[in-house]
Amino acid sequence: MLVKQEGKKLSRESFRRSLREKGPRSLKTHPSKKQECEILHVAKSPVVTMAPTTPIYDGIQIMAKEGFRRIPIANPGTRTLEGIVTATDITDYLGGGKKFQIIQKKFSGNFFKAINEPIKLVMTKKVVSIKTSAKISEAIELMTQKNLGGLPVVDDEKRVRAIITERDIANMFVDRISGVTVAQLMSEKVVTAIPKTTIFEAARTMTKQGFRRLPIISENKIVGIITTMDIIRFFGSGKVFKYLKSRDMNQVLNTPTLEIATKEVVTIEPNADVGQAAKIMQEKNIGALPVVRNEKLMGIITERDFFKIIE
Predict the structure, then answer these.
(1) Tens digits of per-residue pLDDT, 32-77?
(2) What is the pTM of this model?
(3) What distance lies between CA 160 and its chain's CA centroid?
(4) CA distance 292 to 141
(5) I need a labelling partner for 311 at 20 to 30 A (CA). Which of 70, 103, 144, 196 fits?
């Protein structure tokens, strides 16, 4: 971080003061006719879910088509929450990390068999969820503590009612995030890739480091950015399906990341106000902005970073 603790306190006091000036929507005094209305007014509902028996490849296609980074897994009859699958789980399974060993050991490297297995094979079973009666501040605290980008919202019977994400919360406060520079909130240590980095290497790095995106650097300049969703869309394409069916995945996994990455990268300068960053992310529907000065990468700011001043 570029600021001292005293600076952080001043920033947060300034932010809270701006909230009071702009209206009664601070997190701790958020008005609601019913307790459960607060989180449901922000969360996405109805929520798309999948059954535990849904084939993994069907899940990939749903994610790719709808642009979902996470989908709750629910009992098709009762809608009770049984798990969750994320884009990271899929990239882990298809080449990124520990779950990739399942394909090697259980299916002897046969990707076609592997993607037709039920989604429960790769889903996270111990799901961190939040109740419909919870406050938004509780969702922020839980996402921060558990390093999660979203939470299924469940009722007292553990039935899935909605899902709330970092983006939902950031968008809720987009007009009220201000008074702090991007440099004060950004992460300075950025893990990057190069144009020749393969999809396999990128997926493994993201899975191991817990990142959802990697800026691609060439000659000290950003030439692209690769995300887990780019990999999901790639695996869900018809071209890749043919390779999956023929069991020849080496060519797929060795594809350079730059071929599927976003090449027109939206960036921001370190001295810009975080309010500008928040509005750009909302307008472009993206979760992060590389921070650049004189074409040199200085850091990265994400939706999660906004939580540092929304308390």
Answers:
(1) 334 456 899 999 999 999 999 999 999 999 999 999 999 999 999 9
(2) 0.83
(3) 20
(4) 29
(5) 70
